[in-house]
Design goal:
Blueprint (H helix, E strand, L loop, with lengths): L1 H11 L6 H7 L2 H11 L3 H16 L11 H20 L3 H19 L3 H19 L4 H28 L18 H24 L7 H9 L4 H28 L4 H17 L5 H20 L2 H25 L30
Helix pairs in contact: 2-12, 3-4, 3-12, 4-5, 4-8, 4-13, 5-7, 5-8, 6-7, 6-9, 7-10, 9-10, 9-14, 10-14, 11-13, 11-14, 12-13
């Protein structure tokens, strides 16, 4: 009985599992990765596949009431961010200032509209990652074109498959809209987001950390208006990152970074991430992290160093967000803050879903 109970609790972290919707988003990544390897452009193929991965995650969301709006908005935002981030990254101070400004804007949007926040968040994350790979305009153009191709391929395949299999293209259940935030909550949350991102970048730079972009990325994802929400997501984010990095690293070492095996594993972990978007946050984080590590291993190599640096950056970002949240916490319904219980996701009301298109 005890074993069954533990198994039930473990499986609960994998529910709901939207395998039909995930199947629509999966084909683009192996096609792009395989094409990059065959053309002798594994780095560009990995960048395109990474773009397809993020745009595929957007397929479960709406933007301004449009079924495909989130995918189009995400693809456009990633392309622009890839180009600008690469160029601006040559001036670290400007990258830091614009990153903090973007985090503040993203935090304000989060208090009004979750889907729009998610799209903007992906753009800011892509901007900071591109800043890590700073370079001249020709390098920025290559990165931007690779990202644009990946997003376009993903959108095209999803639209075609959705027309063929409309039942697999239904919108995920929509949660309740948050109440309008008060002015104090809005201003303070924007300030805390800018501070968390700035501090996490500064500390990562101070210790000369590779893959430092994961620190501000974690801070933006983890930081929430409620202190308990921030603490809960911080713990789950770190746990998921550890598991995802461990799996991807051990696997890549065992297969000796052979491209076919890495592409197959990236397909499996990406499928899990697509299907687990409304499951437990730690489980989703593990799938996303494993996919990212495998993509970087395909495009740049150095799997052990990549995993180690990502774990350190994740810890820095999570701790920074928690410290900033503790300095000026918001608690209770008076501030429009909804607290989460540790280890659980708030239940989302069931909503009628209709085929996409």
């Amino acid at each position: 009985m005890a074993a069954e109970t533990r198994l039930h609790r473990l499986l609960r972290h994998w529910r709901p599992f939207y395998w039909r919707e995930a199947a629509l988003c999966l084909p683009a990544m192996p096609l792009l990765l395989g094409g990059g390897v065959l053309l002798g452009l594994p780095t560009e193929g990995a960048m395109a596949a990474g773009s397809a991965f993020v745009v595929g995650l957007a397929a479960s969301r709406d933007l301004i009431g449009r079924r495909w709006g989130a995918m189009l908005g995400t693809a456009a935002g990633l392309t622009l961010a890839a180009f600008l981030g690469t160029v601006v990254g040559q001036v670290p101070g400007l990258l830091l200032a614009t990153g903090c400004l973007g985090a503040a804007v993203c935090a304000a949007i989060a208090l009004y509209e979750e889907d729009l926040w998610w799209v903007v968040l992906q753009g800011i994350i892509a901007y900071l990652i591109a800043g890590y790979y700073a370079g001249p305009t020709d390098q920025a153009a290559i990165r931007g074109i690779s990202v644009l191709i990946g997003g376009a391929v993903q959108i095209g395949l999803v639209v075609i498959l959705a027309l063929i299999f409309p039942k697999a293209a239904a919108r995920f259940p929509i949660g309740p809209r948050p109440p309008p935030p008060g002015r104090k909550l809005l201003i303070s949350h924007m300030a805390r987001a800018a501070a968390a991102v700035g501090l996490s970048i500064g500390f990562a730079w101070a210790i000369d950390l590779q893959n430092w972009a994961w620190a501000p990325m974690t801070a933006m994802i983890v930081l929430k208006p409620g202190l308990m929400e921030t603490q809960t997501r911080g713990i789950q984010r770190v746990a998921g990152t550890l598991l995802g990095c461990a799996f991807a690293t051990v696997y890549a070492v065992e297969v000796q970074s052979a491209h076919p095996w890495l592409i197959a594993a990236a397909g499996v972990t990406a499928f899990a991430a697509f299907a687990l978007q409304q499951a437990h946050f730690a489980t989703l984080t593990g799938a996303v992290t494993a996919t990212a590590v495998l993509l970087v291993s395909l495009g740049y190599g150095g799997v052990l160093a990549n995993a180690e640096h990502r774990i350190i950056a994740t810890v820095i970002g999570g701790l920074t967000a928690l410290i900033v949240a503790r300095i000026a916490p918001h608690r209770g319904a008076a501030n429009g803050v909804q607290e989460d219980r540790v280890g659980e996701n708030p239940a989302a009301p069931k909503a009628a879903t209709a085929p996409a298109g």
